[in-house]
Specification:
The complex is a heterodimer of chains A (322) and B (546). Chain A has 322 residues and is an all-alpha fold. Helices cover 74% and strands 0% of the residues of chain A. Chain A has one domain: Orthogonal Bundle (MetI-like fold), CATH 1.10.3720. Chain A is built from twelve helices and no strands. Mean pLDDT of chain A is 84; it is low at 34-39. By secondary structure, chain B is α/β, with parallel strands linked by helices. The longest helix of chain B is centred in the middle third of the chain and has 18 residues, at 177-194. The chains are: A mainly alpha (322), B alpha/beta (546).
Amino acid sequence: MKRKIVIFLCSFIVIYVFNFSIPRLMPGDPFSYSSSVSGEDNITDLSREQIEYLRSYYGMDKPFFEQFTDMVSRNLRGDFGLSIHYKRAASDILAERLPWTLFIMTSTLALSLLIGSLLALWCIRSKRADRIVYGVASVISEIPPYLIAILLLFLVAANVRWLPLSGAETAFGVYATELEWIKDVLLHALLPMTAMCLVTIPRFYFTARASFLGIVEKPYILNAKAKGLRERRIRWRYIFFNGITPVIARFFLSVGSTVGGTLLIENVFAYPGLGTVMREAVKYRDYIMIQDVFLLSATIVLISMFLADLINGLVDKESADL
Amino acid sequence: MKDILKVNSLSVAYSDFELHPLSFSMQEGEILAIIGESGSGKTTLARAISCLLKEDAEPGGEVIIDGAEVLSMSESERRKMRLTTFSIAFQNSAEWLNPTMSLRAQLNEILDRVMKRERQEARMLELMELVGLSGDDLSRYPKELSGGMAQKFLLAGAIALEPKLVILDEPTSSMDVKSRRDFSELIKKLNSEKGIAFLIITHDLSLAAALSKRVIVLYEGHVVETGRTMQLLEDPRHPYTRGLINASMSMNLARDIWGIRAADSPYNRKGCPFCRRCTQSLPLCHEKAPSLEECGEDRQISCNRGGIVALMEAKSLSKAYGKQAVFKGVDFLIHYGEIVSLVGKAGVGKTTLARILAGFDEQYTGNGILFDSERADFELLHRTKRGVQMVFQDSESALNPHMTVKEAVSEPLLLSKEAPDSITPAVIKILKEVGLPGDDVFLRKKVRALSGGQKQRVSVARALTMEPALLIADEPTSMLDPSSSANLIRMLKTLQNQHGFSMLIITHDLECALKISDRIYLFTENGLKRLLPSEYVTANLEKVFD
């Protein structure tokens, strides 16, 4: 356990260092980014003196190492800097955006876990259903979610009037009741979540399928049948209950890829989560913002992987005991 | 009495295994054992009867349990019969129990079918006590159980709803002697007190002997022999049954154990399933599968040759020198592939009898000697393969000391007019088999230059060149020191097990006879008397674990 914590702390430090250096190694800087953003209007041209002023204002004229130590001491004090692009405290912006991303992410994962494992449980009964579902899932899981998102946007949302095309809520919407707001939010989340789910459901399905198939072969399933238990009881108490642990571990392991997927999907649907912030931050070389967004998502991933590790450890311990 | 189980031409076909149509029935309250090696189809049979086969297996025929045909039933109908009419207890392993449920929950699950939760606790305690577990064990989880405890708990589950028939699949595998005895006692108790019929699937012959009234012997999915347990174990009629008994440690306390010789090719699926390992098989056996036929009361056997064949039979042999009788009225019988020992005091006429049976003495009275059901023509039997050969007590005088090893060993082959160029390789092969060097130097060595043990081996080699069907050895070890004697006995038994010939050993050495014989006869002036090892060899191994 101690070892695991140390490993995860080391990973965090490595990520932290990379996170600081990579934006600074990219070509361009926040004040002269004309080189890489093609086809978009550059903001005002700044004079050499203005740039010099801004560079020293943000501390970017200092040596690389000094910038790093500055950042560490500020971060330790809870100060995550001022966004160069948004001209506001980065932490405020993230606090506004994070709930949306978390909302999409966790509901996607929970929904996928539920649907994926139920699908797997259902397929165990019929070889034919299993073949079909397995085939379809194999194909779908290989398509990148943003592609599915674009297809959904064109094929579904464009043709259906009641489905919003973008955003998380109706702009300047006025809601009579909480319920109405919730309905609006859910409606907006429908397409991004569908796009995400289509890709993550197969992943949960595969994990659950492998786990359940392993359980089905266990002697105690045969004994359950010999005991004359009802099929429903065998399915839920024996197969589902005993086989679900790896699927739950999968939930936490999937956070990493789901964060990535969500950030891209948000851009397709102009969803006001971390994804759109990140895109803008990268576009405008907003070092501070880039760093903070990446740091936040990396931390989320690290924590969930740590949890997955814990759960898997419990599973291994359980099977080692047997 | 009513039949609790009736199996009519039950067959199961897997892609790589076939359970041949087999039929048997069991009365209410009976204990029947099905024995066989692993892979004989025992477990398939148990699963077929309890309708728990995998989906790819296709069962055929009928299984009638308590008057209802279960194979054609739907699982939902069968479910009502499970545990209440019949049940199965699997091998002793916690793997058969849901790892995430406590024993209490697992029993709840069963008892829920017949009673309310409030009344279950008392019943659970009763069950646990019955099988030898304690009430505290109810809160344990399967991984906290030992193999023996798991077995007991599985049995508790199987009898919880008091079915009329319980199938036990390898119940005692990996149990120690003590737990095995306790388990036998428990089954006997359940059988006599509750009238539960048990179908015991096992490879443990002593368990079958301790519990069952009748036995069915299964091999490669075929029934090869059935009969009353005691009769079948004391006088096996099928070569496979004999082999199983010979391989059972618990049935052979004094004797060395030997497995059945391995098959050299897979089963061709048309001949007798056992013919490749059988020591008495004919070409016919590879082509035609035998059918199960009645032979005697309550006895069935499936063998093209009608069971273990008598190789040599002699009736009322008497021998006298002038007026003085050496022995009289000796009846002798040796089967294919068995080792029989004649033990007796010195001077009782053992060697004389051996010489008569080997055809070296024709001065006797009696009904003559039959070899393979025909009057023995020893002139021919000595000079042809698959005949009779003898190893004499005194190899010193039995071998010409001036001959080379090669000459001595090849002499019988020369006399039988074997093609000359095949003789040397045959001699080298046989010398290696008896554990002697086959190189030129040794072949050219004079017999007189050999040690006692080597001479005895050369004598054996000489006899074996003729691939005899019957090898008679007169005091084969009497001239040897303990180590050479042990080596020679082991070698003889190994060769016998591989080649499958029959062997008659004449000896005064009871311990040696006990070690290797299938049957032992005590030789007295008045004939032969069978000695059953179980009557004078006992061991109290159970006490060790008490």
